[in-house]
Amino acid sequence: MSASNIAVASEALSIAERFGIDPETMTAVLNEATGRSQATELKFPRYILTGSFDSGFAYDLMLKDMTIAMGIADGLETPVVDTVFETLRGSRGRLGDAPDHTEIGRLYGLGTTPHDPTEKETSK
């Protein structure tokens, strides 16, 4: 579920950003609404939006865990899990050597310009 939460929130933030809404602002909105998850409360502010991508849990271990879960669910209808897994597995090659699982956000263009979301932006 964590991988799915990160992927869905990443999609939402990239769509919001396309319409001019800052990812930090959109994350705050999600966290005050039904879109809140452990991913939006912890992983996005600490690891994804900062561009650090260093939560300590490997992308490949996430894929391994998802493979095990899908094996357990074999024979059941799991279209959402299937779609998320195929998307993340198919994107693995775009992330280089030993990526962190939070680099799911990088697939959507998040965290590519690292900055500290706690810093106030100064006008020039």
Q: Tell me the CATH superfamily.
A: N-(1-d-carboxylethyl)-l-norvaline Dehydrogenase, domain 2
Strand content: under 5%
Total count of helical runs of at least 4 residues: 6
CATH topology: N-(1-d-carboxylethyl)-l-norvaline Dehydrogenase, domain 2
Percent of residues in helices: 40-55%
Topology, number of strands: 0
User: Which second-level CATH architecture applies?
Assistant: Orthogonal Bundle
Spatial extent as radius of gyration: 15 Å
For the record, the count of structural domains works out to 1
Unreliable residue stretches = 114-124
- CATH class, named Mainly Alpha
Shape: globular
Main sheet characteristics: none
- Averaged pLDDT, please? 91
What is the H-and-E element order?
HHHHHH
Could you give the distance between the termini? Answer: 42 Å
Summarize the structure.
The protein is an all-alpha fold and about 120 residues long.
Structure, explained:
- The chain is an all-alpha fold.
- It has a single domain (2-107), classed as N-(1-d-carboxylethyl)-l-norvaline Dehydrogenase, domain 2 (Orthogonal Bundle).
- The chain has 6 helices and no strands.
- The protein has helices at residues 2-18, 23-31, 38-48, 59-72, 79-91, 104-107.
- Helix 4 runs antiparallel to helix 5 (79-91).
- 26% of the residues are buried.
- Mean pLDDT is 91; it is low at 114-124.
Label this structure with key terms:
single chain, 124 residues, mainly alpha, N-(1-d-carboxylethyl)-l-norvaline Dehydrogenase, domain 2, 6 helices, 0% strand, globular, disordered C terminus
